[in-house]
Design goal:
The protein is of the alpha/beta class. Helices cover 44% and strands 16% of the residues. It has 14 helices and 14 strands. The strands form two sheets. Strands 1-4-3-2-5-6-7-8 form an eight-stranded mixed beta sheet, with helices on both faces. Helix 7 (209-225) crosses helix 12 (328-339). It is elongated and about 65 Å long.
Length: 374
């Protein structure tokens, strides 16, 4: 297989007038790709061209072509929390992928580069800095990732979600825009309390072993306490069958689902959300104005999930329970306490809504246009 190739099914129309070409760097996970696609769609709506640089194994190889954007493939791996062989391979791949990215910048007449961070962003961002192409980064976590920290002093603009992130970038170059979130989350109205307390538990599309175990441990406690609760639990596919059978035996109201396709609808029904604290998850909680119990994934790069959860807890929008402390007993205790305090839930929801940033994709597109014409 060749070092790189282009994946696309529908080429972009040629740029006209003041239209520009923009390179999108960053991939691997949905947390990098989905917000970037929202910005790319906004640029396309404005008449610009947008294309992505990523790897074949990352989620971008599926999501980007599906949206009709070209995807240029490079070979690059991580440098942090990897073994010696992977680190050596990455160091050997870096100059080749950087040179290829540099040729892309020139051949496509790129006006500016948009980076979501992550190791995939390294080569195109380095190439952009060498060629003096302006770089706009979006940093959705309270603490920037490795790539964004290393290039912080060189970026034209950093679009951030948490005010405390500004200290990692030069003064005057940050802007509080938040992370692009689907409009459906912003349109969720405050929920009136019903006869049952609705708890949504989700560890993401793959599920969370910690949240799955804590939830299962808590079911008999809820049953014994007689709390009128309804639990909807997204478990991931691997654990769904076993958890579904155990939940049925508990006699509680609710359901265990391997995956929830319509998450805004699930949020709308929830009085309280229990989840991890990745950038996308906390952005959705803020947009929906939902109180939450956040249990950060302990192995996230640079411990960014813990920092995100701490920021939400400081704002009064969430209760923070670290992974090692998340047990059935702790979950039952906090849910029971919050279920009995409607005023506190309302305050938490309002605090979460106060952290929301509508229009993030539009503002990111504007920042790229400004960088291109500066």
């Amino acid at each position: 297989m060749s070092e790189r190739s282009e994946l696309t099914t529908s080429p972009q129309p040629p740029a006209t007038g003041h239209a520009g070409a923009f390179l999108f760097a960053g991939g691997g996970t949905g947390g990098h790709i989905i917000p970037a696609l929202a910005v790319a769609r906004e640029l396309r709506r404005r008449g610009h061209q947008a294309f992505f640089v990523g790897t074949e194994r990352g989620l971008e190889s599926k999501l980007v072509p599906r949206e009709g954007f070209p995807l240029e493939l490079i070979q690059i791996g991580g440098l942090k929390r990897v073994g010696f062989r992977q680190r050596l391979a990455t160091l050997m791949q870096l100059p080749i992928s950087t040179m290829y990215s540099s040729r892309l910048l020139k051949s496509r007449g790129v006006s500016a580069v948009f980076s979501m961070g992550g190791y995939v962003a390294g080569p195109p961002v380095i190439a952009a800095l060498i060629r003096r192409v302006p770089v706009v980064v979006m940093e959705p976590n309270a603490v920037p990732g490795f790539t964004n920290r290393r290039i912080a002093r060189y970026v034209r603009r950093a679009l951030i979600t948490f005010p405390e992130t500004a200290r990692y970038f030069p003064r005057g170059r940050t802007e509080l825009t938040g992370l692009p979130v689907r409009d459906e989350f912003f349109s969720i109205p405050p929920k009136a309390r019903g006869g049952k307390f609705n708890v949504l538990i989700t560890g993401g599309s793959q599920g969370s072993r910690t949240l799955n175990q804590a939830a299962q441990q808590s079911w008999q406690m809820f049953r014994a306490a007689g709390l009128p609760v309804r639990i909807v639990h997204q478990s991931g596919h691997a654990a769904a069958e076993e958890l579904r059978a155990a939940f049925a035996e508990s006699g509680l109201d609710g359901e265990v689902l391997p995956f929830i396709a319509d998450m805004p609808a699930a949020f709308a029904l929830a009085d309280l959300v229990v989840c991890r604290s990745g950038a996308g998850a906390v952005a959705e909680l803020a947009a929906a104005g939902k109180p939450s119990i956040l249990s950060p994934f302990p192995f996230a790069a640079d411990d960014h999930q813990l920092r995100n959860a701490q920021a939400f807890a400081r704002a009064g929008a969430a209760r923070l329970v670290e992974d090692r402390e998340m047990t059935g007993e702790r979950l039952f205790e906090i849910v029971t306490r919050l279920a009995a305090d409607a005023a506190e839930l309302a305050r938490m929801g309002a605090a979460a809504r106060g952290l929301a940033h509508p229009g993030a994709a539009r503002r990111a597109a504007e920042a790229l246009e400004e960088a291109a014409h500066a």
